[in-house]
Batch of 2 targets.
Target 1
Amino acid sequence: EAGVTQFPSHSVIEKGQTVTLRCDPISGHDNLYWYRRVMGKEIKFLLHFVKESKQDESGMPNNRFLAERTGGTYSTLKVQPAELEDSGVYFCASSQGWGQPYEQYFGPGTRLTVT
Amino acid sequence: EDQVTQSPEALRLQEGESSSLNCSYTVSGLRGLFWYRQDPGKGPEFLFTLYSAGEEKEKERLKATLTKKESFLHITAPKPEDSATYLCAGLSGNTPLVFGKGTRLSVIA
């Protein structure tokens, strides 16, 4: 069974440009999460989808970040316009429906560098 | 505020030298305590979930335990391939997964 996949693996953009990150969760997983790790800090939650609906977006830094999940399958995270502080590694994770087990399975991440 | 603290930040062991990593948490209404392994350039790889105090789980040379305030990841007779960053995370009923900063483990042959 394929794991969580993310594209691209690495993106380098200039301040002010737009970048779109993509995540394909494990097939059948209703829950999809986005996280970010900024250098020297811990991994932090951004938002949570249940199927195509946003369940919790309390971790989104500001309105420059827009996440979508088309038809409850893959998800995109767009940053527009990008700022220097947006640099970091963006992880996507997925998990099954409600109830135990709650394990979240992570993708390899997208390393975003804003110059 | 929910918080997870891991210690030590870094640990260097000789091959075969057993040790423990600590994860202390203040997570209200804990639903699960997770351990992940992360290799450089890769995403966190799931290891264990612990649901209640007193629970223990084992996988090869790793054993995870949970009390009401902390969790330990015991590594028995480690090998160089166990070198990685080990992450602890807590899940409550009201907040999303909260991670610690991790412990960087280096096992020297």
Target 2
Amino acid sequence: EDQVTQSPEALRLQEGESSSLNCSYTVSGLRGLFWYRQDPGKGPEFLFTLYSAGEEKEKERLKATLTKKESFLHITAPKPEDSATYLCAVQAIYGNKLVFGAGTILRVKS
Amino acid sequence: NAGVTQTPKFRVLKTGQSMTLLCAQDMNHEYMYWYRQDPGMGLRLIHYSVGEGTTAKGEVPDGYNVSRLKKQNFLLGLESAAPSQTSVYFCASRRDNQPQHFGDGTRLSIL
């Protein structure tokens, strides 16, 4: 059974304090690992797709990396507007579905 | 370009009542999905569709039915609502080999 575990559940940072969010996964052949951002009262917004171990993608202050067992979302010098819930999901190689983790709630204080 | 639109945005039902949630997408996407999101549990897949006229069960399908009569619409039905179905419901769609795009959800309370 495909599984995704995200840690920590919640993270509080000061503005400018860099950190990382973790996504550990087990899947029967990885087709893709997805990161989404979700603001309160809104639907998830797509950030990145990673396909193979060693792959990295960047967008502004965010950088996502992938190994065979986990993915990290690195946040460099975060700002208050980066506050959101970050969701990780995997898609198996022969599947049409995503399996989501429970998410990490990030709060960045100025 | 509206993307994925969910109707209604909020609804309160009494136990035993029925209702239908509507998801409409204007991106000509083949795949559509219904999820529920509960605190601490992330998004769980209820039902999904890989094309017009097709439906399939997800992780938590009991108590729900779906229909995809038109490519752009995916309907989620609750025949006899129960308090355990109080949740936020999200619809998503995608084309092949692309990420899912989500609507902004329907907040459903069942008393």
